[in-house]
Amino acid sequence: MTRTILVTGASGHLGRRVAARSVAEGWTVVGTFHTAQPELPGVGWRRLDLRDRAMVEGLLTELAPDVVVHAAAGRDRDDWAVIADGAGAVAAAAAAVGARLVHVSSDAVLSGANPPYDETALPDPVTRYGAAKAAAETAVRTVAPGAVIARVSLILGDGDSKHERLVHALHAGEDGALFTDRYRMPSHAADLAAALLELAGTGHAGVVNLAGSDRVSYHELGCLIAERDGLDPARLPAARAQDRGVVLSADTRLDTTLATELLTTRVRGVRELFGQR
User: Fold this and answer.
1) Beta bridge partners of 46
2) Which pLDDT score is estimated for 73?
3) Is the pLDDT score of 76 beyond 80?
């Protein structure tokens, strides 16, 4: 019998790929959106406002999905009502209907002061976004203790991710800079989508780190993207976040040993993604 998966935020960068992958794997797929319904073959679309707990409960009760992948990211990075409270509503509703919950979290829950981080690392966020994601993790652990919480790092795509678009904008002369003193472990949204669906089929509960194998600064990543896209890396402005007074997690290097043990999916590092190894 075909199983049903609900993907929240299926109109977003990662959620869209999770929904498409689910269709390809034979799931009955329902995706949620907030404002504009996208086109994605094989997906049944439902509008959902994560700030409306009754609406969340009603949708989960109606669908009674086997799996929920909570990939909704909020309308902006200060959207506490969606990022934190909305995650709690989804987790409670998923638990009430017996759905397996895969919650997408972020390395922003970590300050980056003491890398590398394994799954036992406690949140110590330095930004409002990180604090909201940490609160979401706490809510999920409390109301859906059997859920898996996937901590991901910077997410790339095929030119369509926020960071890839930023590199092109900076190359064209837009104001801004790429930081040389802030480090992440980027991965491709398609790899993450496959890993999240595989995690849904495991019995693991709690945090799993999902990230690529390469630790790079924002500026290093920008140069790699520029080279891939035929741009001149030398035209990308560089700066130190510390010098500009920008508060941002320093080095959120994730230990991905557990993911390697649990999953057959390979989350590729950025240099492999860009054909450098």
Assistant:
1) 32
2) 83
3) no
